[in-house]
Each structure stands twice: as C-alpha cells, then as structure tokens.
Amino acid sequence: FNVLEYFISTHGARKGTTDTALKTAAAGYLTRRLVDVAQDVVVRENDCGDNEGLIKYKTDCEEINLPLGERMWGRVALDELKNDAGETVIKKGDLINREQAAKIDEFGIKQFKVRSVMRCKSIKGICQKCFGYDLGSNDLVQMGSAVGIVTAQAIGEPGTQLTMRTFHVGGVAGASDITQGLPRVEEVFEVRSPKGEAVISEYDGVVESIVSHGAEKIIKINMESTKGAKGDKKGEKGDKNEIREYSVPVGVGFFVEKGDLVAKGVQLTEGNLNLQNLFELAGSEAVERYIIKEVETIYVTQGASINEKYLEVIVRQMFSRVRIIDPGDTNLLPGEISEKWTVWEENEKVSKGGEKEERGKKGEKGKKGKPATFEQLLLGITKVSLTTDSFLSAASFQETARSLINAAIEAKEDRLRGLKENVIVGRLIPAGTGNRV
C-alpha cells in the first residue's frame, strides 16, 4: 500500500467490523420473527386432496442457475411426463426421485405442476403430500414434523452470511439506493414499501412515448386501444383522456420501449416492486413468484442456497389472513382479520348445518346456514404473528400489553394449537413424529 491506499483501507476495515456486529443482531431478530410466524406449521395429515398445485417455471430457475428438475426433486407431481415412446416416466401423484427429476431436464420441460404447501387445504397445519421430502432424511416428511420451526432455521441461519450493504446507484442523488442482502430480505418478508420503487403498469395498453422532462422521464401509456391485441381495452369511464403517465427519475433503466404492448401488473422500470401494488394489480400468484425469486436470488448471490419449499412455508403464512366481508351465519364479525383456516372451519360447520351458537342463542341443528365471504390479505410476518388466533403466542412475541388487553376485551379463548402456547403453559408441544394427532 502507499499512504493513501493504506488510509482508505482503514475505513473499510472499521466498516467491516461494525457491519458484522450489527448484522448478527439483525439476523437473529429476523430468525425470531420467522419462528413466530411459522411455529404452528406442523404436518397434521397424509393428504389434503389438493389438485390445484403450483406451476414451476424453467425461466425462474434459470435466473438462479438451478435446473428445473433439481427444484422438482422430492415433490409430489400433479402433471404427467411421457417419453418419446409414449411411456409414462412420471405419473400424477408420484414423489419425484432423482432419476425422474433428471428426466424433466433431459426432455427440456418448460414448466411443471407440483403440490405445494402454499396450496395445501389442511385446516390445521399442512399435509405430507404438499410438503414432499424431508430434506434431513430424503424421505417423505413424517407426521408431526415441526416443519415451520425448521423453515425458520433454514432461512434465518444463513442470514448472518448476507451482506448489510446498500449500494448507491450512480447518477442523480436519490435516484435509488438499491437495498440488498439482509435488509432486502426483511423488506420483502415485512411487505414494506421498497426504496427505489419500480413503476408497475396499472392498465393494459401500449407505450405511446417516453419523453425526458427536466430531471425525470415520463412514460405515457395509451389505455384506449391495444392496437388489435386480443380483447381491446377501453379506458375506464370518467377518465377525460385515456393516457396514463408515469414519471421516472433520470438514470433509472426501462424494461419497455415505445410501441410495446403492456399488460396490467407488468414492471416498466428497474427497481424493486411494491408487493401490495403488485397484489392488487396482478393477484396473489404473481406476488408468490416474486417473493420466492427475490429472496432466493439474494441468498444464492451470497453463496447460500435455500430449498424453495422453505420459502413457500413463509409465503403461505403471509397469505394466511383474510378480512371478513359478510359473516353470513358464522360467529365471525364483519371487518375482522382472521386466519384463513378458521374461516374455512366455520364455513364448513355452517354448510353442514351443524349446531351454531349465535351470540347467546343456540342455532338450529341440521339447518344449513350462509357461509362467510372474505377477501384475501397480504401481510408482513410481524403483522401475521400479531393477528394469530392464539393470544398467548401474540403476547409472548411483541406488544404484550396490547395483545392481552384486546384478548380480555373480546373474552378470547386460546385453543393451544400451536407450539408456543403449549410451551408457555408448560404442556407437551403438539408436534414430534411420535405425537398422536
């Protein structure tokens, strides 16, 4: 080193030391939140009977340099795969082994449908078929396995290896600090508005022009016609002009150019997507794909790979809450945020005509009632942990007084279904491969 280089390196050395000290705490806290959000995910039954599954795309795998077959290994197939001679290589319902996984790559399959915990229909916990192989034993996951806790450890443990850096992108000050590493993982899991937010198209249309205007560029999208594209879209009623404008800071790259057709929910500029906006415009499946791709990319670039199944468990929990629109004949309240499976359970009781206690009066037995209607929510992991049906679990996580006061006001009862609640009251946890479900 000459004198200047030596002097500059002292800054790097100090920054490295402070980063490490801060990072350990941040990664530890992320792990704690992941444990809390996923702790009650336990394998409860053999098969929930789901046929919806999840389509895995080759393009998503290529972005992180993993073959599609590798991703399919140890999962239950919902598609069939035949070779050139017409012989079935993978049957629907097969647990895909290494040889079958290799065949998926060999035949150059672009997409394949498998069972996933994100689509599992089990009312409590998840089922064996939707999870597939236990990666510790390379065999079908056993009943009673505490999959949620393993998930939190699998994602949290490599968290200490992720960088804490935020890279400043050149150009105009404040163009965007692209967040990477651990803070970005946190941003995604907590569904926060990202720094350097990308522009998403709100309508189907055609890019009419991209014009520079001072310190920004303006994209104009004509919503009126999609120039002979399928299903010509007209602008919304009440719009004076059918042209939508988006302003973008100079220095931010574009993914579209003049004359391109764009669909609702498509990313127009570089940057990170706002998950709530994406959810409203493109639906839950687009958000699921984006979260998994985003988090996996961060870990892979830091040399720590996580099996996708674990990320799916967390994403399942992020989509596990619903807001009641019309409670029907159930005991739920309009506007209440509840666990999806609780609503399923209530609706099942009502549709079977089971005995309902209608707030003080007994429901008639055998009479079929009206099920509740609800809207799907997307919540960050902290919010999910605090809206759990178990007040003991919520109180032991954060905002203790608030959780307990609310529970007292609502005269809540805790069914002790998760692991935390049972630890708190000193019972055996309802998990473990010898546990009688």
Automatic annotation (TrEMBL):
Q: Which GO terms describe its molecular function?
A: DNA binding; DNA-directed RNA polymerase activity
Q: Does the keyword Phosphoprotein apply?
A: no
Question: GO CC annotations?
Answer: DNA-directed RNA polymerase complex
EC number(s) per UniProt?
A: 2.7.7.6
Q: Which UniProt keywords apply?
A: DNA-directed RNA polymerase, Nucleotidyltransferase, Transcription, Transferase
| Reactions catalysed, as given in the entry | RNA(n) + a ribonucleoside 5'-triphosphate = RNA(n+1) + diphosphate
Keyword Transferase among record annotations: yes
Q: Which CDD domains match?
A: RNAP_beta'_C (cd02655)
Give the matching InterPro entries. DNA-dir_RpoC_beta_prime, RNA_pol_Rpb1_5
Q: Please give the residue ranges the record annotates as the region Disordered.
A: 348-369
Q: Name one GO biological process term.
A: DNA-templated transcription
Regions of biased composition (Basic and acidic residues) lie at 348-363
Enumerate the Pfam families for this protein: RNA_pol_Rpb1_5
Show where the RNA polymerase Rpb1 domain sits. Answer: 2-382
- Protein name, per record: DNA-directed RNA polymerase
